[in-house]
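Hi Y.,

Following your request, here is the sequence exactly as I used it, all 346 residues.
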Amino acid sequence: MAGEGFGRTRDGEPVTRYTLERGPLRLQVIDYGAVVTRLEVPDRAGRRANVVLGLDTLAGYERLSPHFGAVAGRFANRIANGRFDLDGHTYHLPVNEPPNTLHGGPEGFAHRLWRATAAEADRLVLARRSPDGEMGFPGTLDVEVAYSLPEDGLVRIDYAARTDRPTVLNLTNHSYFNLAGEGAGEVLGHAVAVEADAFLPIDATGIPTGEVRAVAGTPLDFRAPEALGARIRAGDPQIVRGKGYDHCFVLRGEAGTLRPAATCHDPASGRLLAVATTLPGLQLYTGNTLDGTLVGPSGRTYRAGDGVCFETQGFPDAPNHPGFPSCVLRPGERFTATTTWRFSAA
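Below is the corresponding structure, written out as tokens. Let me know if you'd prefer a different format.
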């Protein structure tokens, strides 16, 4: 599969867009940030529409994007106060969401060029070498992400990584979904279910407090499908702190095994997304910082609640919480993880 040009970075490096197709699905990915720029999915009448938020130009992804469709790393989500300890050494990271480091820092994986090592009609592998000390993280990390369409209706994302020094690692894809179609407005009518009995409460800066709290009796109870908007304006301190949903759920089942994580259904179009993952957590995020200043390919602006993210990942700030599942990767080990998006319509 040959890619097509998608502009040049500020440094003059060419960026390529790749298109994967199988059956009714059409997926487009660029090698800048490993970004999913477009994902076309049919509705109940067979009409295809793009169901992910994005931007028209490379300059937009470089300068404006709130991680639309990108692979976030070296550590997705937040690290408190831009620091962590590992094997007796304290590492300091650039702070880009004061007082914390978000998604690996201001020049994390979402703002780096990747290299295509395989490009087929229904499979794309992107790789990069993150040098020792990049954004403050230790160890030279060789990382790859593979996007594939292994069967009709299914998008599969496989991650792999190795390091030459002990480091911390947390990878996710940060796509914002609107199953009614990109630019269709708010997703608060989408019905969401999450395979979790507990979540991680956050402090005023979005960092987990360390508590693992049952969802029962809270606005974060998605054990049965519930419209995103049903409780998003509740006065609960957790909703207030997140300005909506911006919380990590503790997924049921054994991490390392591919298991159901969440479902999302748009009643109007009939589109249904089912997320599965091998990872221990899922960050549910309702695009709370979208403020109407970004314009998508539809020519319509994006506002808070116009997209929902299902960020499968390790736990936020895990390096600073010994009780959380370990995010440490050591020499001789190979990190692997898989997430799938299965689409249907009814």
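The chain has two helices and 30 strands.

Thanks again,
Q.
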